[in-house]
Amino acid sequence: EQKGLKDYYKNYFPIGVAVNMAALNGQQAELINREFNSITPENDMKISVIHPLEGQYNWKNADAIVDFAVSHHIKIRGHNLLWHTQVPDWMFRDSTGALVSKEVLLRRLKDHITTVVKRYRGKIYAWDVVNEAIDDSPEKYLRNSLWYQICGEDFLAKAFEYAHEADPTAALYYNDYNSEDPSKREKIYRLLKNLKDAKVPIDGVGLQGHWKLNDPSPDLIRTALDRYSSLGLKIQITELDVTIREPRPRTNRPPDTAATMPVDSGYTERIARLQADRYQSIFQIFRDYKKVITSVTFWNLSDRYSWLDFRNGGLAGGAAASINTPRIVRKAYPLLFD
Ligand code: XIL
């Protein structure tokens, strides 16, 4: 049998990949089985997919991904239990459309977390319990989501408590992007420290890792790993990709002809080498931190489909996205496999 990444990294940490339904068959399934020993559902455990109407759960896709993983001895990361996006409106509103009280929202959150986490109890080694709750602007601490507007800060601790109660064996994570940026890093640190000080059951922090060729710098990555692990938390890299083309076309910029070319011609040797060097230096850091890093997950399988690809002016991602998504006009080539 050909060795894969998971074999080379067996003395370090599991190597994961985010998947959608299309990845469970054929060539994509073969690639997953050869290279990876952890998977994350890209969208299928998000509230909008798994719990589209109050009390009505749609387990089909999540079950299929979990069954695939269990039958192939692949570990599963759960993603995610609370986010400001991909959450249906019913969560926050009553039948007249008015925002519900804090009490009602926390009860709905508890119902949701308890039902989903219990269903997969013992099968999920880590859950992203809260995703992206920190604000991006330097002046503001928490994101002004409906969770925050209705509950204040309290939803944070509650989400972890509900999840821990439903599956005491799962490691519980706070997950965010740009977590290496010094100003955002300190706000995330503050949030994590508050939770730890309040004895909230949190095990670690997920760094999404949607990175570029030169940004964040290796120094900033190491500083972030030091800073978060100083709280006694584990770290998982949850959504790694290294885009080699800015994903958002600026208005008024002429169309990028290279981006409409097939993969082989758009992806030059020179830029491929820069990306390989970048991945090498990133993974050197991860190996240096193997005592605190407990898994590294890529966000998608190969450059044939990435959520960072552009299609008709919008990100290509979406609940139904797959490598069959038509009319990609601007590709990001952020992954290891072509
Ligand atoms: C993305 C998916 O890849 C897309 O298919 C979807 O349209 C939007 O969400 N941070 C996260 C992930 O935590 O859940 C996001 O996934 C990417 C950014």
UniProtKB/TrEMBL annotation:
Catalytic activity reported: Endohydrolysis of (1->4)-beta-D-xylosidic linkages in xylans
Residue intervals of the GH10 domain: 1-338
Its EC number(s): 3.2.1.8
InterPro entries given in the database record: GH (IPR017853), GH10 (IPR044846), GH10_AS (IPR031158), GH10_dom (IPR001000)
Keywords: Carbohydrate metabolism, Glycosidase, Hydrolase, Polysaccharide degradation
Listed Pfam families: Glyco_hydro_10
Gene3D superfamilies recorded: Glycosidases
GO MF annotations in UniProt: endo-1,4-beta-xylanase activity
UniProt similarity note: Belongs to the glycosyl hydrolase 10 (cellulase F) family.
The name this protein goes by in its record: Beta-xylanase
Organism field: Mucilaginibacter paludis DSM 18603
